[in-house]
Amino acid sequence: MSQLWSDHVAGLMPYVPGEQARIPDLLKLNTNENPYGPSPRAIEAMRAALSDEMRLYPDYQALDLRRVIADRFGLAPDQVFLGNGSDEILAHVFNGLFLRGGRPLWLPDVTYSFYKTYCRLYEVPHRLIPLDEDFVLNVADYTGTADPEPAGVIFANPNAPTGRALSLDEIIAIAQARPDSAVVVDEAYVDFGAESATALIGRFPNILVIHTLSKSRSLAGLRVGYALGHADLIAGLTRIKDSFNSYPLDRVALAGARAAIEDEAWFDQTRQAVIDAREQLARDLGALGFEVLPSKANFVFVRHPGRDAADLAAGLRQSGILVRHFRVPRIDQYLRITVGMPEQCARLCDALRAMPAV
Ligand code: PMP
After folding, report:
1. End position of a domain, from candidates 219, 242, 262
2. Distance 227 CA to ligand 1 centre (A)
């Protein structure tokens, strides 16, 4: 980097998104996209939004969409915050909730890697708390006495890339033990079978829940996420948003997101299809000798006791199939595989079967 940049920029640790390769007949099982596609009603609404009205700024408060989301969860619109993808909301959360007089943020050692990227970006002091050897988050690690108190706690539920989920009681225990810390629950994958902490928002003013339309609503390309929590948490996020970008969601996104959230039938049908395909894929990979962690997400996290994960990923790539392999400590012998349609999962298993044993 040239010396025009501050040292801070040189010290950043940018997130590395999964590969978006241009390979013919590619099967992308590496970025947890949803193969079933968005609600046709959402596509229709987005087409309709492409009108002369595009010359006007969108509603900077996005009130209509916030009302629809609030109604769905039995909350008020002032308990809903919207962002350009949940990643943007996470950025505001790290910036706004986790910089508190040098107190550390607590987070698991194996989790969504963007959290560490945001720690660097906003210089958030933090403590990585190891998951146990089966990648289970031990709640007692988060509930004991602490000096100093954490600035906040963040975890993904279900966790990424493991797919493991905590119960509501476990989340309650953490929120109860840390009343002076924001407890942020990233529920990007919750609709695939985990219990949602949204049910706790009325009881715990320190819980903030973050959702995305990228996974269960199959709208990763639209970039819409939302956060739910006490009105005071939402007001702080709104202050940050309005000091950063008043219009994170454009008119097309507002229209598409609203129609997608209103189409409960499409939502239920497609997420159930993903859940069914996941259970089948877990059984099939088990039969191929893989150890498969129990997953409540739209991916499985697997390792093969006799085969190197990097070799497997490279071999699959040769067959035109992308899966995610993280070259980082503890998980470098694992693959994270997005659940595709049943025929796509079958293609993956066929390719694995055809690979020479080592
Ligand atoms: N949280 C987790 C745990 C994720 O895996 C992802 C997807 N990479 C996100 C948040 C971000 O999702 P998006 O920005 O597409 O809403």
Report:
1. 262
2. 13
Query: How many other CB atoms are there within 10 angstroms of residue 347's CB atom?
Result: 18
> Token pair 């409960």 is at which residue?
264
pTM of the model: 0.97
| Atom number of ligand 1 nearest to Cα 111 | 3
**Structure-block tokens of residue 33:** 């996209």
Taking alpha carbons only, the member of 217, 143, 154 closest to residue 183 is 154
Q: Distance from the CA of 2 to the center of ligand 1, in angstroms?
A: 31
Question: Is the residue at 149 inside a domain?
Answer: yes
- Out of 219, 247, 262, a domain closes at 262
CATH number of the domain residue 61 falls in? 3.40.640.10
pLDDT tens-digit readout, 159-217: 999 999 999 999 999 999 999 999 999 999 999 999 999 999 999 999 999 999 999 99
Question: Residue 1 pLDDT > 90, yes or no?
Answer: no
The pairing of beta strand 80-83 with beta strand 182-186 = unpaired
Give Cα separations from 37 to 85, 166, 263, 272, 312 (angstroms).
17, 28, 13, 14, 28
Substitution candidate for ligand 1 out of 31, 186, 326 with most atoms within 8 A of CB: 186
pLDDT tens-digit map of 303-330: 999 999 999 999 999 999 999 999 999 9
Q: Provide the H-helix boundaries in 63-108.
A: 63-73, 86-97
Atom 1 of ligand 1 has which residue's CA nearest to it?
Answer: 188
Q: Domains in the chain: how many in total?
A: 2
**67 and 173 in one domain?**
yes
The helix/strand/coil state of 177 is helix
Do 291 and 331 reside in the same domain of the chain? Answer: yes
1 occurs within a structural domain? no
Examine the pLDDT at 18 and tell me if it is beyond 90.
no
358 domain residue, yes or no: no
| 53-101 pLDDT tens trace | 999 999 999 999 999 999 999 999 999 999 999 999 999 999 999 999 9
Which residue has the least CA distance to atom 6 on ligand 1?
Answer: 188
Ligand 1 atom 7, closest CA: 188
pLDDT, tens digit, 9 for 90 and up, residues 293-303? 999 999 999 99
